[in-house]
Each structure stands twice: as C-alpha cells, then as structure tokens.
Design goal:
Blueprint (H helix, E strand, L loop, with lengths): L1 H30 L2 H9 L8 H4 L27 H14 L4 H9 L2 H5 L7 H4 L1 H19 L18 H6 L1 H7 L9 H12 L3 H16 L1 H4 L2 H10 L5 H10 L25 H6 L3 E4 L9 E3 L4 E4 L2 E3 L3 H14 L6 H12 L3 H9 L3 E3 L4 H11 L10 H13 L2 H13 L3 H30 L1
Parallel strand pairs: 1-3, 4-5
Antiparallel strand pairs: 2-3
Helix pairs in contact: 4-8, 5-8, 5-11, 11-12, 12-15, 17-18, 18-20, 19-20
InterPro entries: DUF247_pln
Pfam families: DUF247
Keywords: Membrane, Transmembrane, Transmembrane helix
C-alpha cells in the first residue's frame, strides 16, 4: 500500500512539474507583445524545408555538388569540394591587401545577426567561431564562382577543375543550380561585409556591387539590358541569392507599359481556368507581353486577348521554380507571385497541344526536347500549389472563364476554327454562301415578276 501511495505521489509531482513549466511558458508568451513577435519572425530568411515540401519533388531541394551554409555542410558526398573552398579563400585574400584577421573581426561583429538568418541551427553552429569561419569560407567561395569569366579565370590554372576556363562549361552550371536552393543560401550581409572590406566601400555600395554580381551570374537576360540593370540594382534589396533571383523574375521596368492590377469580386470564392487549347476554342487569342516578368499577365475581356510573358525552360527550371515557391511558402514577406504563376501555367498548359499553341505566339522557348515534357514539367511543379485568389492572377483566371462561358464567343470561335482555318474551305463556304444569295435574289425577282402579272 505504501508503494502505491509513493507511486501516486511521484505521478502528482510530475504532473505539477509539467503544469508549472507550461504556466511559465504561457507567462513569457503573454509578456511578449505582437510587435516583438513580428520582429522575431521576420529575422529568419533561410529555412530547413519540412518533409512534406521535399516530397513534392525529391532531390530538387538538396545540393548535389556544393554545400553552402550550415544545413548540408557535413554531408559526405559534398566533402570533396571543401578543400577547393579553401583555395578560393586563399586566392581571394591574395589579390587584396587586407588580412584574414580583418575579415574575421568584422564578421564577428555581425555573427549573431547572421545566425538569426537561419532557422533551427545545430549546436555546432551556435558557436560563433565555427559559424564565422563557415560564413567567410563559403562566402569567399561563392564570390569567386560568381566572378568567373574569361578574365577572372586567369587567376587560376587553365585546367583547374573548379575555377579554370574548362570548369566554366562543365562544373559551374551544376554549382549555379545548387546556389539557388533555399537550404543552401548565405545571407546577403555576408557578401556585403566581404566586398565592403575587399573594395574599401561602404555597405550601400557593396550591396549594389553584390546585387549586380548575382544578376550577372544568375540572370544574364537582365544584365544584358543596361537600363533595366541599373534600375533593378537600385530598387532591389534581397535576403540572399535565391531571393534576388526571385525578385528578378518579377521585376518590371518603369519603361514597360503598366497595366491595372485587379482583384476578384467579393462574391467569387474560387476561380478555375481551362487549358490554352480549350480557351482558343472559346475564342480567346494570345499575345506576348512586352516584359519577361512573370507578373505581366493580363486579360482584355473586350477583345478576348490573354497576354503572357515569354517563358524559357531547361533542365534547371524545375530546381529554380520550386525553390522560389518553397521560399514563398515559408517566408511571409516573400508574397506568392511565383507560386501563383506556377499554378496558373499548370492549368494553362495541360498537353503538348497547349505548348504548341503558345509556341506559335512566341511565348515558349522549350529546351527540354519535346512539348510533352514541357507540359509535364508544369504539371509536376503545380502540384500542391495554388493561385492566390486575392491577387491579379486569380482575377485573370476568373475573367478568362467568364469570357469562355459566353455562348456568342463559343459560336464565333467554332465557325472560325471550322471554316476559316483552310483557305480552300473558306472559298467553298464563300461560294456556297454566294450561291444561296443568288438563289434568294432569283426567287425574289421571280416573285415580283409573278406579282406584276
């Protein structure tokens, strides 16, 4: 009986301990106001992805060649590149006049801020010395890779496996892909500090230099347009390379004709959209946008014209888009523009016929081999992704469907596609119509003559 009472008292003590701990946490949470919580949630910009996100497409979110930052640092298959990172640091320091100690002191001054950029750091990386070393080595390595061109390669042997001219064609494309993975990011502050010390400029100028470097390496399309580049660099402040890349895909130059961004009416709860081929059957026409920004999608309901930006796809497209979608999924400040675009295209492109239709209007550049592969790509990427119904694309979807449901549009489109696609068919229709017209005229004339008699 004593043993039972003793066991009961231990259980009560454990319960009390659990209750006390929970009450302490509740007290602490109540003490923190919403403003403090908002500041706390805004600090991280680099995240470990939950398993259900990785299951969408296994392998798309995991680096294959190089680990950057703490999350994949100790993976055995990525270790061979660690010695090459140190060579990059050596070359970086050798070209400058500042010692490594200067970089360490400056980076130690912001190490806590850098650590706050990551969610769920392991104990090893909570150590400031370990974390600072990681940021400097990985940061210098990434700078060296992004700077690789015909001139910069001269700092390395021509046959260098990772920094020579040969590597630019055969290794850099794979490293570039790894550098755009969400779990493989470095805070932009790392590069700002490194470049600021290296070039002896203030952080504002260093950020412009870094942004231009990222754009040149990841988005040559923008870099080759000098006017757009200058405007982009001055207006964009990204968290890391992936975020700068995401913003570049949404960037609209002030010189581009602007269109009104509208939202769904309050009474519409959900908007669906049919594929491009089916839209065409309903009378919708397609037009290429003046801008390549993913957000320049609009619909002219009066003329039935859907305007879309040109999209280029290749073997890296899935990696890039899904990591941008993952960033928007986790980071509240990133919005949902890329996610909405992926879902929109997933609905628009359902088959090879849809791809061919868009290709004829100059909206598609397919580097995958077949139109079927293009359609399957967007079908895969749009799984578990939805259009923001409160955004512009939600309104476009709704407006397109409203247009498609009008009977007059369906009838006109049917007549056009059935009788006007082939010139001989059109001539036959015209001849038949003219014959009917002559018959009617002949009938009327005969009737009038009969009446006079």
């Amino acid at each position: 009986m004593a043993m039972i009472n003793n066991h009961s008292s231990v259980s009560i003590e454990r319960e009390r301990s659990w209750v006390i701990d929970l009450e302490k946490k509740l007290t602490c949470n109540n003490a923190a106001n919403l403003c403090d919580e908002e500041i706390q949630w805004k600090k991280p910009s680099i995240f470990r992805l939950p398993e259900f996100v990785k299951m969408i497409k296994p392998g798309v979110f995991t680096p294959k060649v190089v680990a950057l930052g703490p999350y994949h640092h100790h993976k055995s298959d990525l270790q061979p590149l660690e010695s090459h990172k140190e060579r990059a640091l050596h070359n970086f320091l050798k070209r400058g006049v500042k010692s490594l100690d200067v970089y360490v002191r400056v980076m130690m001054g912001v190490v806590e801020k850098l650590q706050c950029s990551y969610v769920d750091l392991e104990e090893e990386w909570k150590n400031q010395d370990n974390f600072t070393k990681l940021m400097i080595i990985d940061g210098c390595f990434m700078l060296e890779v992004m700077r690789l061109d015909v001139n910069h390669c001269k700092h390395y042997a021509p046959s260098d496996p990772f920094f020579g001219s040969h590597a630019m064609k055969h290794k850099v494309p794979y490293m570039r892909r790894d550098m755009l993975m969400l779990e493989n990011q470095l805070p932009i502050l790392v590069f700002k500090k490194l470049v600021s010390i290296e070039m002896d400029v203030d952080e504002s100028e260093a950020e412009c230099i870094v942004t231009e470097l990222v754009v040149r390496f990841f988005v040559p399309r923008i870099y080759n347009k000098k006017d757009n580049l200058t405007e982009f660099i001055k207006s964009i402040h990204g968290f890391h390379a992936l975020d700068i890349y995401r913003r570049s895909q949404l960037f609209i130059s002030s010189k581009t004709p602007q269109f009104q961004i509208r939202k769904l009416p309050a009474y519409v709860t959900n908007a669906v959209m049919r594929s491009a081929a089916r839209q065409r059957e309903a009378g919708i026409k397609f037009k290429r946008s003046h801008s390549s920004a993913l957000t320049t999608i609009s619909f002219d309901s009066r003329r039935g014209v859907l305007t879309l930006p040109e999209v280029t796809v290749d073997d890296s497209t899935e990696y890039e888009f899904l990591n941008m979608v993952a960033l928007e999924h986790i980071h509240a400040a990133s919005g949902s523009d890329v996610s909405s675009y992926v879902a929109f295209m997933g609905a628009l492109v359902d088959s090879a016929e849809d791809v061919q239709l868009l290709h004829r209007h100059g909206m598609v550049k397919n580097g995958l081999g077949s139109d079927e592969d293009f359609a399957k790509l967007f079908s895969r990427m749009s799984q578990e992704v939805i259009v923001d119904q409160g955004g512009n694309l939600g309104f476009v979807q709704w407006e397109v469907e409203q247009y498609c449901q009008r009977r007059w549009n369906k009838c006109c489109a049917y007549l056009k596609h059935t009788y006007c696609r082939n010139p001989w068919t059109l001539i036959s229709v015209f001849a038949a119509g003219f014959a009917i017209f002559l018959t009617l005229v002949s009938t009327v004339v005969s009737f009038l003559q009969w009446k006079k008699v």
